[in-house]
Amino acid sequence: MLTPLGRLDKYISSENIFNRQMVARSLLDTLRAISEDERECVSVLERIDRLADDSEPTVRAELMEQIPHIAIFCQENRPSIPFAFSKYLLPIVVRYLSDQNNLVRKTSQAALLVLLEQELMERGDVESLVCPVLVDLTAPDSSDDVKTEAMAIICKVAPMVGRDVTERLFLPRFCEMCCDSRMFHVRKVCAANFGDMCGVVGGEATEELLLPRFFQLCSDNVWGVRKACAECFMTVSSASSPDVRRTKLSSLFISLISDPSRWVRQAAFQSLGQFISTFAGPCSNTGQYFRDEAQWSGSQTHRADAVCPPQDSVDVAEEGGGEQTAEVLSADEPCCADADAQKCLPEETQPSSRAPAQEIPEQELFNSFHYWRTPVPRIAPELELELEDRRPSAPALDRKQLQELIENLEPHIDDPDVKGEPRGFIFEMQGTNKNSCTTPERERECVCVTLTTSTGVRAGADRMCVSLSVCVCVCQWKVRRTLAFSIHELALILGDQLTAAHLVPIFNSFLKDLDEVRIGVLKHLYDFLKLLHQDTRRKYLYQLQEFLVTDNSRNWRFRSELAEQLVLLLELYSAQDVHDYLRPLALCLCTDRVSSVRWTSYRLVSEIIRKLSSCSSLLVSFLGELVEKFCHSQKWSGRQAFAFVCQLSIEEECLSLDQFSEHLLPPLLQLASDPVPNVRVLLAKTLRQTLLEREYFLSSVNCQQVALEHTLVALQTDVDKDVKYFASVHPGSTRLNEDAMSTTSSTY
Q1: Number of Cβ atoms within 10 Å of the Cβ of 560
Q2: Where are the HEAT repeats (predicted)?
Q3: Which string of DSSP letters, residue by residue, matches 111-165?
Q4: How high is the pLDDT of residue 86?
Q5: What is the pLDDT of residue 434?
Q6: Which of 6, 71, 393, 613 lies 20 to 30 A from 683 at CA?
């Protein structure tokens, strides 16, 4: 009979640790019970402060887990208890950040992040109370664990508190920790979060303060630190100016690619495509670029990501010009080659019709390159739109710089540690490109490079297919596995014609490969087949059954993935094809030895019912087959499966209620006399929670209404208490499919 506050007072001073933990766990409920009384709410908050001094770490940790929930309550009831969070809760969070117990410390760090994400803390409180404590925890005299944890939390807090606070309070200590010679764990944390810190403080602080530290971390004597640098290289590059990317970061990245540690090299090659994408401008055809920050506009006349070349220079770029073209352009980055390219410019930075003569170096004013050819004729807008997808984008680096990058990458093409990476690359270099070089002189100037990363650069499609064919022939399965997982992305890039000519044979060879390779094809089977022509796609109907055979019969996840893909494939084929080819596979998977495969297959069966509902003859045939194979099965698991399929068909509206009532309801009601209680339990749930939720089954229009009522009465008087319960009550919070899974998966 104690009041909520009296109960709190009774157990808060208990000698039993579990009682005090219970107090911490029930604080929110206590506050909700007395929320209308401001005085009692303040009394509870005062007792929270008393509980925070508990000597038992588990009690303190339990209290800290409740702080974010209590803070939300205080925010919702702010008019009645103003300043509750700042006065009572925030000091506890700040104090626990330096707690001696590891569990309490980590719980407070997690609570702090939640409070910041939910914007429950005033900015002034964060700056004056939280940030100084975090900085103090990274002092040289702090323990190693505390210092590492504090630096990690600083890196997560920095984006939330913004640039000003980060530069004033966090940046000096972050730079100092990057050079901590005693603790490599701290340096590794700094390296892993370096890109986020660069993004917060902006370009100027990045180049002046952070990049020198980044160079030191990239040459750290611990390979884990260098690996962390390689993983965040793209974000550091996107926060830097174009000149720094070319002159400094490119050579630094080459050193990571050539690192003695295989783990560093792998991480660097995984980041290669992302790093290259930071060189692209917004008007390039790759579709992937990073905007430079607005701060750079103050130090440069034109922003690299917003300036397009004059129209006269566009013609030169389209013709495949090299170094000299780059020198004529007034921007650092290549821009779009369309006649309407100026639409991408801000109004205040629209270029004039011709670049000023003083911007062109004197030695370039009179050379053969500017005057040897006739101007390219103006392309009609309609034709230009048609050719836009076929036109290769201008290289972001000039020829000399790109060739230097390629020469540094070439020794690593055959590195076995790199070939198997999921984001590996296919590399090819040829001396000429006759599509873009129109004269012998310019043919010698052209260097054709095909570099395909996971981001999908659309260039050199034919040569890319040749490279892929070479990869298929490699006795290293990791290389083939990499391609199998990404062949659907390549098909999306190449289009249906090139895919049918080049990728379909490769895809077919993967179907007969090792399971480690086949799983890559299977996981994206729908994504690949939907890109093929209907006639080509239909040929694979005969090969789907091959996925039922695996190298290891215990590899049940392979069959589960097949069931999930078959659900997606239903939309690609006609009802007749589904009935003839996919139906037998579904019925076979429904009898799998592993319950997870079977439950996925039951959903597949319900979707097949939906697909066949448009053709009454096929539907009736399939429903009759389900009744024969499952409802009349000798195994109780088959009869239970029939009840589950019936439930799914109604809940997912896979067929009309009239069709269900005619073909599935009579055999379903026969399961009321099944000797296995598990079957009757699922039947009771299906009737009570699914069928009786529909007005159709309660009205006299339904010819099975009487039989349905008699079956329900019989189940309500069943000898099994679970059957009786689910037939009599309707648990509103429980869905049938979830409940059925939890009830039967352990025994089924």
Answers
A1: 19
A2: 130-169, 210-248, 664-687
A3: HHHHHHHTT-S-HHHIIIIIHHHHHHHTSTTS-HHHHHHHHHHHHHHHHHH-HHH
A4: 80
A5: 35
A6: 613
Please tell me the pTM assigned to this model.
0.44
Q: Which of 575, 631, 581, 634 is nearest to 607 (CA)?
A: 575
Please state, in angstroms and rounded to a whole number, the distance separating the CA atoms of residues 240 and 212: 13
d(CA 8, CA 428): 73
**Is residue 571 packed enough to be buried (19+ CB in 10 Å), middle (13-18) or exposed (0-12)?**
exposed
Check if the beta carbon of residue 437 is closer than 8 Å to that of residue 448: no
Distance CA 711, CA 218 (A): 73
If we measure between CA atoms, which residue out of 630, 676, 636, 677 comes closest to residue 649?
Answer: 630
In this structure, the chain runs to a length of 748
* Alpha-carbon span 417 to 36, nearest angstrom: 65
Residues of the chain with pLDDT under 70: 1, 78-82, 281-475, 700-703, 729-748
What letter would DSSP give residue 386? H
CA angle 509, 514, 516 (to 5 degrees): 115
DSSP E strands, 353-436: 426-430
DSSP H/E element including 373: none
**Nearest Cα to Cα of residue 664 among 675, 672, 655:** 655
Give yes or no for a contact between 598 and 633, defined as CB atoms under 8 angstroms apart. no
Q: Which residues contact 166 (CB under 8 A, 6 or more apart)?
A: 158, 197, 200, 201
Report the number of secondary-structure helices (H) and strands (E) in the chain.
Answer: 50, 2
Q: Per the structure block, which two tokens stand in for 286?
A: 């790759």
Coil/strand/helix, residue 439: coil
> How far is it, in rounded angstroms, from Cα 447 to Cα 461?
16
What is the Cα–Cα distance from 558 to 537, expressed in whole angstroms?
22
pLDDT of 80 reads 63
At residue 495, φ and ψ (nearest 5 deg) are: 90, 170
Identify whether the C-beta of residue 425 lies closer than 8 Å to the C-beta of residue 273. yes
Q: What is the per-residue burial (b if ≥16 Cβ within 10 Å, else e) of 311-345?
A: bebbbbbbebbbebbbebbbbbbbbbbbeebbebb
String of DSSP letters for 676-734: -HHHHHHHHHHHHHTGGGSGGGTSTTSTTHHHHHHHHHHHHT-SSHHHHHHHH---TT-
Asked if residue 185 lies in contact with residue 177, where contact means CB atoms within 8 angstroms, the answer is no
Do residues 541 and 578 touch, judged by C-beta distance below 8 A? no
Q: Give CA torsion, residues 52, 55, 57, 59, to 10 deg.
A: -50
Contact (Cβ atoms closer than 8 angstroms) between residue 511 and residue 521: yes
What pairs with residue 179 in β-bridges?
none
164 CB burial (10 A radius; 0-12, 13-18, 19+) = exposed
pLDDT at residue number 444: 31
Determine the pLDDT at residue 30: 84
Sign (positive or negative) of CA dihedral 388, 389, 394, 399:
negative
Specify the amino acid at residue 570: L
CB 266 within 8 A of CB 231: no
Give the torsion through C-alpha atoms of 696, 700, 703, 705, to 10 deg: 70
Q: At what angle do helices 262-270 and 223-231 cross, to 10 degrees?
A: 10
Q: What pLDDT, on a 0 to 100 scale, did the predictor assign at position 531?
A: 92
Give the pLDDT confidence of 129-143 residue by residue, as tens digits: 888 888 888 888 888
Residue linked to tokens 């981001």:
455
Contact (CB, 8 A) for 393 and 286: yes
Give the whole-angstrom CA distance, residue 257 versus residue 236: 17
